[in-house]
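Journal club side-thread
Mid-discussion, someone asked how the predicted structure for our own chain would compare to the paper's figures. Pasting it here so we can look after the session.
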Amino acid sequence: MILVLGGAGDMGSGVVEEICRVGIPVSIGDVKMEEAGRIAAGLQEFGKVDVVRLDVNARDELVRKAREYDVVVNAVGPFYRYGHAIASALIDAGVNFVDICDDYDATDDILGLSNNAREIGIIGVTGLGWTPGISNILAKKAYEEVGGDVDAVDIWWFGSAADSRGLAVVMHLFYALTGDVPMYLRGRLTRVKAGSSPGYSNFPIVGNLKLYYTGHPEPVTIPRSMHVSERVTVRGGLIPQWQNKLVKLFIKIGLTSTKENTERLARFIHRIEDVFRSGGRPVSGVRVDVTKGESRVSYCTVGRMKKLTSIPASIGAVMLLNREIKGAGVYPPEEIIEPTPFLAKLGEKGIEITKY
């Protein structure tokens, strides 16, 4: 049986639905009992879904409850606040887990728990969502196609306010666009100013977009297992593109100067988010370009953010349940998951990958 922490949230509910639809019993672990009950009731025709009131801040309770399950999926964000603490509790519980962590510092901390997990023989996969997640798997796929030892891995993403309703997504966005963030440049991990170094990338449906350095885990994790001589970068942004200018203004005037200020601003924006959804397109996407000499292999996918995030996490959870992922420790997706069969599973779930 699988437990989804934050299963009543925007992304977590998608994970619950995907697991339920393949006939595996799943529990929604959340404090939002009314919403959790509504989601569970709506899925009863597809399989067994129950609800467990669970506060992830109550560590002893979380450890005790997690021990009742075969696999746990953590969808509770923002991950810079909750990611490490929850991963640590799940390791103490001795349960295999997947999360959709999208914050670079939390990812580093979670990977630091790998020896603890290895000692007790469990597996954790961190960052198995959209970006990171699909982005890492596509990078590994392209890396293998060109024969390894590449010059560059450039990741591009865009999201839309019309494509998400989760508060944690807003918090992550402001966090990723604030301060100095990690990029792998000139063969080493360094810090750059978030929102700097604009570049352009082309996507199906939305066309050519101007995107900026953003704080994501891929520059931290990809060089661990792939030899990249020059750079691993992540650039992202919002559509419509006027929203990028507004976010930059918020940052410039100091509204994201601390985590507390960032979360206060995110809560305000979340309350009026329908204003930002107006006129927007409910679609998000990620593109990965891998370069070696004169050769470049690019992969891209565009779709609904909820699907792009929840489907990879659900597939990973089922793979852990079925022992299709072997080993012990905590890993990013590209270190523990074979790209070709995983991408085939994404295709079966309706996530179309385009190669350029």
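Post-session note: The first helix runs from residue 10 to 21.
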